[in-house]
Structures are given as C-alpha cells and as structure tokens.
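Quick one before lunch.
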Amino acid sequence: MLLLSACAQQGATDQGKEVHRLYGVIMGLGAFVFVLVEGLLIFSIIRFRKRDETPPPQVFGSNRALLGFFAFGAVLVAVLFPFGERTLSDLQKQEPPLVALRIEAFQWEWTAFYLNEGIFTTGRTLKQPMVMELPVAEPIHITLVSRDVMHGFYIPAFLFMRNAIPGHPTTFTFTPNKIGTYPAQCTEFCGLWHSRMTFVVKVVSPTDYADWVKRKTLKGIGGTCSPHGSDVHLVAKNTTWNTSCIAIPAGQALSLTVANEDEGVKHNFAIWKSIQDAIAKKGQIYQTGPFPGVATHTYSVTATAQLQPGRYYFQCNVHGVAMAGAFIVK
Amino acid sequence: MSTAEMAGDERAVRGTSSPVLGMVLFVASEAMFFAAFFAIYAMSYSSQPSWPPKGVTVPSIGVPSVMTGLIVASSFFLQLGVRAIRRGDGRRLSLWLATTLLLGATFVALQLFGYSQIEFGIRSGIYASLFYVMTGVALAHVVGGVVFLLLVLVRSATGHLTMVRHEPAEAAAIYWHFVVIVSVALYVVFYLLVSVQPKGP
Amino acid sequence: MAVTEARPKPLAPEPRRGRVLTWLTTTDHKKIGILYLVNSFAFFVIAGILALLMRSELARPGTQFLSARAYNQVFTEHGTLMIFLVIFPTLAGFGNYFVPLQIGALDMAFPRVNALSFWLLPVGGLTIVSGFVAKGGAAAGGWTSFAPLSEQLGTGEDLWIAGLLLVGAASILGAINFIVTILRMRAPGMSMMRMPIFCWSTLATSLLVVLATPVITAGLVMLFTDRNLGTSFFSAAKGGSPLYWQHVFWFFGHPEVYMLILAAWGIVSEILPVFSGKPLFGYRGVVLAFLLITALSFSVWAHHMFVTGAVELPFFSITTEMISIPTGVLFFNWLATLWKGKLRFEPPMLFALGFVAMFLIGGIDGVWMASPAMDFAIHDTYWVVAHFHYVLFGGTVFGIMAGVYYWFPKITGRMLSRRLGLWHFWLQLVGFNLTFFPMHMLGLQGMPRRVADYAPDRGWNTLNLLSSIGAFVIAAAMVVFAVNVILTLRKPRTAPADPWSGNTLEWATTSPPPPHNFDRLPVIGSARPVYDARLAGTVAEGDGS
Ligand code: HEA
Ligand code: HEA
Ligand code: CUA
Ligand SMILES: [Cu+2]
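Model of the dinuclear copper ion complex:
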C-alpha cells in the first residue's frame, strides 16, 4: 500500500491536481479498510488456532451486528461519494479556452487541428508519433472525434482520459500547469497496432508556443513540384504517400494508379479544393473508393480536365491530413 | 411414495410443477432478450431527429393489424383449451390447439408476405436493421411456438394429457402468450407508432 | 434420535455400457458435475498457457515471442476462455454436483436438459478456440469485443460469436435447471432458510444468468447481423452507435462478474464455518447480502463506460459504491465466523482464508475506479488488469481451489495430499501477488492494457519482469496441484463419509455417493443437519465402499 502511494502521479494540470487529491482520499480510505480487515483476519488466524478439543461457542449472529455491518459500509460510502463528486464537478468546469483543438483519432494515429491558429500536427503510423505543443497555464478546450473505431485519448501525467467515439464527438477542458514533455497513448483497444498509437504532449512557455505555431504555419502544405504528366503513380505505405506534391498539366484527364501497401489498412485518394474544405467536408473534386492493402487499383480521372490552373489539395480521406499534399494544376 | 414426492404431486396439481416453473423462467429470459432490442429501439428513437428516419416508407398498417388481431385471438383460444384440459376435456383441448395452430400458421404466412411488400432493404440504416432483425427473431419464435403447439397437439390427440398431468399444455400456453405479447409490442413500435404518431424534425 | 427413512424406492440398475459411452450419455448430476470440472480444467490449462505466452512477451520491451497480431488474439482468447469456459463452468460444475446433494435431492430437476447444457460447453469452447486455425486468425477484439472494431475483424470473430451463443444458451438452460431444482426438489425439512449457503449463492447466480445472459445473446445477434447481413446497429455512419454495443455488453458484463464470484463466496461461506467449528455468523445477513448484490448489479453497468463521457456519471458511481456495502457485510460475517473459533488450517481453509485476504484487495481496487474522476486516470490501464485478477484469481480461483480440496474426497473417495496442498497454496499465494501486485503500480504509471509492446524508457521494465516471473511461479503451483490430483487418483478409495466434520447433507452420504445419492437422510432440523446428527451421536455413516 505504501508502494502504491509512491507511484501516484502528481497531475500536471489544474484538474489533475484535484484528481491527485481525490487519490489521497481514496488511498486513505482504502488503507483503513485494508488494515482493519486484514488485521482482524491475521489476528484471528494467530489467536484462534485450534489448540484443544473444547467446542467453540456457537454464535449465530444478530440483527444488531447485521445493522452495524451495513452501517459501517454506508458511512464509508457516504464519505467517499461526495469527494468523488466534488472532484468530478471541478473537472467538468468550463473555462473560456485560449486554445481550441479538434483532435481526430484513427487507426492508428492522431491528428490535432488548432482551430484558432489554423495549423495542425499529425503522426504517421509506425513511423513517428504526433507531437503536439500546448502553452502552459492556459485552458485548453478539446473536441475529440474518431474516424473509425473507439480510441482512448490518455495523457497519464494529466491523470485524464477520454474515449474518441465514432459519430459521437466529446469535449473537455484542462489547464496544463507544468512545463515538460509528456508521453501519451491510446487506451482503448483499437486493433492491430493499438500498442503503437502513441503521441507526445509538450507543455511549453507561451513564447515557445508562439514560435512553434509560426514554424508550423510556414511549413503547411506549401510545397511545389514539377509536372508529373498525365500518368500519376501513387504508393501508400505506412500511412504515408510517396509524395507530398502532385502536379499535372491543365485540361487533361489523368490515369491514376494507387498502390496500397499497408496490409489490412484502407486508403483512398481524394482531391479537394483546399485543406479547409476537406476538414469541413465540402467541395470535393474527386475520390476513389477506399480499399484495403495490399492491392493496386488504376483509375481514369476526368474530373481534373475541368480544373482551372491553381493549387488544390489531396489526401486519403481515411487518414486526412496525416496523408495529404498539394495538388497543383499548371 | 416418499413425503417429498407426495409434496411434489400436490404442487403439480396446484399448477406450479417443475416444467411450468421452468417455462416461466425461460420466458423471463426470453423477455430480457427482446428487452435488449427494444432498449436499442428506444435509444435510436430518442437520438434521431425524425422517426422513422428520412427515406423510410412505413408499410401500410392494414395487413399487420389483421395479423396482430389473429394472433391475439389465438391466445384466447389456446387459453380456452387449457381451461378444458384442467377440467379433463382432452378433446376440446385438441380442438382449440388446432385452431391456435391454424392462426399461428396464418400469421407466419402473412408476415412473410409482408416482407415482400417492404420497400427498404436490411442494409438501409438503423430503422431497417431494427425492423428486420426484431421482426425476424420474433418470427422465429412464432415458428418455434407453432412447432411446440404441434407437439402438444400430437400428445393431446393421442390421449396423453389428463386433468392431473398436462404440463406440456400449460407450458406451451405460457410460451405462446409470451410470443403473442412480443408480436403486439412489435406491432405497436413498427406500425402503430410510426403510422399514427411519427416523430418529425 | 431417529433417522427418517427417505427414498427406499429401488432404482433401476444402471444399464451396463462401455465406460466412455456411460460418460457421454449420462444424466446423473454427479457425473455431469465431474464432466464440468474436467472440461473447465482442460480449458484452464489452455487459457493459462496463453497467459504464460503473454507474460513471456511482456517480460521485456520489444517483440520477442508474439507479433502484435498474435498477441491480440492471445489476450482475447485468454480472457474469453477464462471467463466463459473456466471460471463459470467450474462453479456450475460444483453446483451440479453439490446442490442436489446439499438439498437432499435425487438429481437435478431436468436431468436431460442438464446433460445438454453441459455438452454445449465444449462445443462452444472449441468453436471459439478454432479461430486460431481460421483464416485471419482467432478473434482479436478483446473479451469485450467493442464495436465497431469487432466489425472489422475476420472469420475468427464469427466463430467467437457462435461459440459464445452456444455457451450462453448452455448457461441459461443450466440456470433454469438450478432454480427449479432449488425451489422444488428440497428434501422435507429443508426450508429455504435452512438451505446451505452455497445453494443460495447458486440460486443468486442463476437468477443473474437468466436475466442478464439473454441480453448479451441479443447483442451477439446484432453484432452478427452487422457483420454478415449489413445491418447497422453499431455503425454511427448509418444511424446506429458503437455505444449501443457497450450498453448491451456491460448490462450483461457487470452481472457476469458477479456470476463469477457469488458461488465462490458460497463455497468460502461453507468452508470457513466448518474449519472454525462454528456456524456461519449471520446466515440471514449473508443471504440478504447475496440478494442485494444480485439486484444492485443490474444498476451499475456504465461504470465501465465512464470515459466515454456519455453516461450519467454520478448515478453509476453511487450505485457502484453501494455494492461495496453488502459486500462488506459478507466480509464482516466471515471475520465474525472466525472470531473465537477453533481454526484448523487444512488446505481448504487456507485457500478460503487466502480468498478473504486477496479478494479484499481486488474489491478495494474496484472502489477506486467507482469514482469517475479517479477512473479517468486509470481506466484501461494495468490498474484494471490488477483489479480483475485480484477478484477473479485472488477471489474466485482461490475459492475454487478451496472447494476442490474440500470436496475432492466426496467426489472421488480419496483425500488430496495435505503436504502437496500446502506447497500448492503457498506457491500460488506468492506467485499470484508477485504477478498481479506490480500491475497496480504499472497502472498508476499509465501503462495501458492490451498492448503487445511498450516503450523501454517509461520505467515499466522491472515491474513487468517481476510480473512475468510471478506468472511462472503460479504455473509451478498449478503443476504441484496437477501432480497432487494425479497421485491421489491412483490411491485406493479410503476417504470417510465426513472427513472434515462438515455441516451439510453431502457429508451424510458415502464418499463418493451412490448413484441415488442417499441411502438414508438425517433429520433436517436446522441449517446444519450433519452437525446436529453428529452432536446427537447418530452420525449417518454410509455403507462404505
Ligand atoms: C469477480 C469479478 C469482479 C468483481 C467481484 C468485481 C467487483 C467490483 N468491481 Fe470490477 N471488474 C471486473 C470483475 C469484477 N469486479 C472485471 C473483469 C473488470 C474489467 C472488465 C474489462 O474491462 O475487461 C472490472 C472492472 C471494473 C470497473 C471498470 C474499470 C474501468 O474499466 O475503468 C469498475 C469501476 O467502477 C469496477 C468496480 C468494481 C467494484 C466497486 C466492485 C465491488 O463489488 C467490490 C466490493 C468489495 C469491497 C469494496 C471489499 C470489501 C468491502 C468492505 C470491507 C466494506 C467496506 C469498504 C468500503 C465501503 C470501501 N470494476
Ligand atoms: C478468471 C479469469 C482469469 C484468470 C484465472 C487469469 C489468469 C491469468 N492472467 Fe488473465 N485475464 C483475464 C482473466 C483471467 N486471467 C481477463 C478477463 C483478461 C482481459 C482480456 C482482455 O483484455 O480482453 C485477462 C488479461 C490478462 C492480461 C492482460 C493482457 C493485456 O491487457 O494485454 C495479463 C497480463 O499479464 C494476464 C495474465 C494472467 C496470468 C499470468 C494468469 C495466471 O494466473 C494463469 C495461471 C495459469 C496457468 C499458468 C495454467 C497452467 C497450468 C498448468 C501448467 C498445469 C499443468 C497441467 C498438467 C501438467 C496437466 N491476463
Ligand atoms: Cu487507438 Cu488504441
Ligand atoms: Cu463492473
């Protein structure tokens, strides 16, 4: 039991601190019950070992005792429950958030959209986990969604977890209060690579945060490349395209080949007007049907013939910005 | 005969013999089985903006009303049969059993006919899922009930059921009444409610 | 004091058939009980070996023995088999053997249904296990098989569904049989409030089975049609919801865990009094607690869904915490039974005391998670794994072992070796704590469950290694147990009718009992007819064997 208290995490958010306090209360209560019951048990084992043949007293119990036993538990619950509820209502308090995030979970990666800043950060399955930075001492408001199955958004150091549920967005708020780097992980079993669905949360000073946002904004989907011609070959492997930029001549149909090398994972290829449109799910120009790997499909795309020269955006609709790039018509 | 067995016989006469008690428990279990589906129905109902959801054309209420009427009537007839055998009248029991069977079989036929009239397929969303699976498992129960009644009819017609020993008839009746209740409940949620009182946006 | 003549009715002689055929076609509750126990032990070895595979993989970070794909199948099958084909059927096996004996009946109410409900079990179990040779492997969605993940998986998942449907049907039939037997087949004088406490626990378990298991049957039907017929119960895109599966699963799942513990409480409540030389303290309180827990267990299911954020948190929190009140009553009644007793530390008693000590820890672990705010920090971490192994292994498996040592002489006519029993007990106690205590700390440090691999830099390495070593100590304990059983079975049948100075009717007949159970029944004037008879000097000795 002592060992257990040593393992408790402090809780690196305001809310986590509350949970830690609750932890103390439950620990105390649990230790009390533990010591009482195990103590009586061990005492009985030592004291009442059979030593002679005199028959022990035949006691059948009484209503008084029964009442007492019920009362004991009832009192403990009456103490415990209000503490738990207080902490819970503290957790659920909403503060006006500075940073509003939309976090999307999918097999087996995370993407975080910073709604006010217009940037995103994402991981690539089996290659590199998502790294998200948060400013210290600011309330963070998160909307959590899942694109496929149940996932669990869990930052152990924050003592907080919430499921990402398909078709059922949930929201919550927390305020990190300690600068540091915190490993985090998916905690709802989500299939083959559940164990690799990790991410990293960096809580940084407001200036560092501003820097990070700036760097992210510049990087974006801003690349450029020379034309591919009207034959486009794409390979999806480890939830990544083999290119982050496709350029085609204007006014031509395309012959598109998509090779999906991720065994058992579905991908598709879609062209959108812009990344904003893709997030809002409107203005899609073209999409192939999603199909699981390992497989290769070829499509002839006529929708591109009507496109005005300019910058567009492509992605795998299954994995969103985690598998995306610039689509340029020259 | 031991006292235990004598006590057993006494209870058999009072109508709480082991097979009947077993059937009551089985029906309780079946009730929970259907309750799970109805709970999902209720959760879907309350979470959808309109019910039936857009794009679902509710089949006309005519044939289902007739079907439900028939099966409710069959329950009464079966109970008349049970009353008869409690008086020791095996011939009457056989008669009422046959009537019930006939009505049950008609119900099955009409239900199958009904399926052929439905315009939405099983793949077209939550309403279709609930409709086909719930009516499907219920239909399987009706068919099971018909088979059960048939077996009882054979025993009754061959004179195996008497005033004192007729647990199969009692048990079959309990099961059949339960199936009828389920059919009525399904009628209410899939025909009456959605025709008379659809939930709109 | 007189001994009533009961059942002088001569039985038709057992037809002589081949030995195997006798077992295949038997409808004798005792033989069926033995079949249950043997079948459960076979699946225990399979599921235990799967556990050893997992622990070998987790001993060190990195992937050594099992790929992620294999690991996911292994823990799914481990959990499923342990719960549905080991723990529950073992308890049902004891029920089959001892409920009719304890209430002075000839057999179960429906002997042929009884045989059917047994035989569905190995069929269902093998269906589930056969996933390992199916294309795409065995089910790999966890024993909880959450949708919509479970709708992506291969053939193994359909086999899992089919197997569980069979096992579910078997347990419902079995439960109906128990309830009717207990309500209708009691010997004269055996009123409900004189009934052995193990029968009460079986009655409560059976009520849970009858009312909760059909709900998962419905869920499995929906999962099956979603997977194969294109319905959309659990698919959010087409109007369903993944949460429906969770509601259905846990509405069954929580009562299920009490189905897994109630009969173990019953066994322990039989054994503690016998080896303390006292009656069970507060018999009526224990019965009341059983019934309260049975009723309450239908109102707590969403404590498994706290982190979905989509359930009424305070309601499910308070109902969950309230369950600890009647459970506490059980504990205090057990302690009061020991109090001022004359304790004899035979192996059954040791396992029963181990049960009390270990189940307490698991119960307290449970209360931690009953506070939603706390659960947000530890849900689906190894804390949960620690909790349920403390209640399931520390509780039920210890209880089962207590029952095995207690009733083995009755079933086989032979006493298990006390010396090997002590070895078994201490190895199991030490190995168990070594395996599962470190999981508390892993959970608090945030190690998620159901992972095939973990990062080497999170400080989880030592604790995992300890836990893996512990698993092999448990395996050693189980080998000692197996050796004990095998050696004992080769000895002659010398066990007396009542080796432990028992209280209940099974000790009033020979060891093993004759096919018709009793040659004569003692007078049943209290909850302890055999104790009364012993006191009056009219020990009902059987005719020996
Ligand atoms: C035999 C099986 C069994 C039993 C008996 C219990 C008993 C309890 N369980 Fe457990 N539980 C499981 C098997 C069991 N559980 C399993 C298998 C899971 C995981 C499922 C999965 O996800 O795979 C689980 C998960 C689980 C969760 C979900 C955790 C999560 O996923 O986040 C919760 C949350 O509330 C919980 C709570 C409890 C409580 C409060 C009890 C109580 O009944 C305990 C009561 C006992 C005591 C409290 C001790 C004695 C009492 C006293 C001495 C009185 C005084 C004490 C107090 C008032 C504190 N359990
Ligand atoms: C009653 C139930 C029960 C029992 C007894 C056990 C017993 C054990 N369990 Fe299990 N466990 C579960 C129920 C149970 N478990 C459940 C429900 C899950 C959740 C699954 C999920 O997440 O879906 C789980 C998950 C689970 C995990 C977590 C997996 C994960 O989340 O990634 C782990 C990890 O260590 C584990 C380990 C063990 C170990 C080491 C044992 C050991 O105690 C096993 C010991 C037994 C043996 C070692 C048997 C060997 C026997 C012999 C050697 C006899 C020899 C025979 C002859 C010679 C004839 N279990
Ligand atoms: Cu995502 Cu586990
Ligand atoms: Cu529970």
